[in-house]
Amino acid sequence: MKRLAFLAFGLVLTGSFSATTLSAAAQSTSDSLFAQSTDATQTTDSDTFKVGTKEILPFVSLDDETQPYGYSIEFWDQVADDLNLETEWVRYESVPAMLNGLKSGEVDAAIAGISVTSAREAQGFDFSYAYYRSGLQLMMRSPDATPIRSALARAFDWNLWRPLLLVLATSAGVGALVWTLEHKHNDAFSSNPVRGVGQGIWFAIVTLGTFGYGDVTPTKLPGRIVACCWMGASFFILADFVASLTVSQLAESNISFEDLKGEAVGVIDGTTAEDYVRSQPVELFEFPTFDDAIAALESGEIEAMVHDYPTLRYVVNNQPGVFELVGDRLTFENYGIAFRQGDYEMHEKVNKEILTLQEDGYLQLLNEKWFGEDEG
Q1: Pairing state of beta strands 109-110 and 48-53?
Q2: Rounded CA separation 190/180 (Å)
Q3: Closest CA to 313 of 53, 143, 138, 147
Q4: Taking the CB of residue 120, how many other CB atoms lie within 10 A of it?
Q5: pLDDT higher for 112 or 223?
Q6: 138: which strand partners?
Q7: According to a count of CB atoms within 10 Å of the terminal CB, is the N or C end of the chain lower?
Q8: What pLDDT, in 10s, does the model give residues 242-277?
Q9: C-alpha distance from residue 255 to each of 250, 251, 264, 328 (Å)
């Protein structure tokens, strides 16, 4: 009887253990299915590719009512389309903030007008192949924007006065020499030194200007030799005079940092322009935004600003007579898409796509659309 009781008790325990085991197995299966479902959801979410950007005209334009648009935005949309990526734009106020967001994982890539530099590579970023060739440029207020100041500057411009003084001095010298050689036997030259030298200067000026001699001409060999020499020299004097006036008119377009020595020059904080201007003999002014720098230049707080060439050219084209680009490009830089170091798979996919778009002529068409010519 006791054996039967122990047997029955054993069966009860065995059934209870089996039920517990089955329940645990069912729970484990349910957890596994939920995990798979969660993984599937996460995979679906990962198809959204977060891209950081900031406003830099005409590459990126941002406002609250529309999606970002511009050269770089249109370029990325084409890349994303071809790679079947759904883009989520994340906006930043500055390039350093955008790159910090990329480094911390807030976004998967960054595009705007980001110059590819060795310093940024060393900070933990990889860049795609270049999709636009840019560079730094110097911009100043247009002389037309400040006519009074421009007129005063020209009035005291040595390039304007030097040729005038040269003409007057040489004409006076030749006039005095001709009077000395001619006044004793030539009635056209008065014996009075003041009046006679004046007649000699008039002779020199009309000869220089190829107006003809009029009634004042040398009659003796020494005087005629001087006249011939003066006619030959007049070609060079006139050429120098015209060249000097042309240089005076173009001088403002060829201003260098040496001409701006000690002057206030503005840059946007955290850009490659800041590093460049620090090495120049000027006073550096840093501004948090592009609009702040433009306002400072227009008001006269700074004499010039340095920024990316295409952006400054866009400003000049849209505000004619207010600003002007001066000199040649200071540097040449490439724009690229930034990635975190280690994201080799996406980096490689984007690079292949850029090569394809370049070979297909898409980049050239994009340049013509936004800039009217093949700038890239």
Answers
A1: parallel
A2: 11
A3: 138
A4: 18
A5: 112
A6: 306, 326
A7: N
A8: 666 555 554 445 677 888 888 999 999 888 899 999
A9: 9, 7, 14, 9
* 333-335/132-134 β-pairing: antiparallel
Q: What percent of the chain has pLDDT over 70?
A: 76
38 contacts: CB under 8 Å, gap ≥ 6: none
The residues, ordered by sequence, that sit 6+ positions from 39 with a Cβ below 8 Å of its Cβ are none
**Both tokens assigned to 53:** 């950007």
Q: How far apart are CA 61 and CA 294, in angstroms?
A: 17
Mean pLDDT of 340-346: 89
Number of H helices, E strands in the chain: 13, 12
Q: Name every residue whose Cβ is closer than 8 Å to that of residue 150 and which is 6 or more positions away in sequence.
A: 143, 144
Taking the C-alpha atoms of residue 187 and residue 197, their distance in angstroms, rounded to an integer, is: 13
d(CA 312, CA 334): 16
DSSP 8-state symbol, 141:
E
Collapsing DSSP states into helix, strand and coil, what is residue 160?
helix
Better pLDDT: 92 or 150: 92
CA gap 179, 193 in Å, rounded: 8
Alpha carbons 99 and 137: distance in angstroms, whole number:
23
Asked if residue 8 has pLDDT above 50, the reply is no
Question: Which strands form 48-53's sheet, in the order they lie side by side?
Answer: 86-91, 48-53, 109-110, 338-340, 125-127
Helix 362-371 / helix 71-82 crossing angle, nearest 10 deg: 160
Per-residue pLDDT band for 10 (boundaries 50, 70, 90) equals: very low
Reported as a pLDDT band with limits 50, 70 and 90, residue 239 is confident
Handedness of CA 153, 159, 163, 166 (dihedral sign): positive
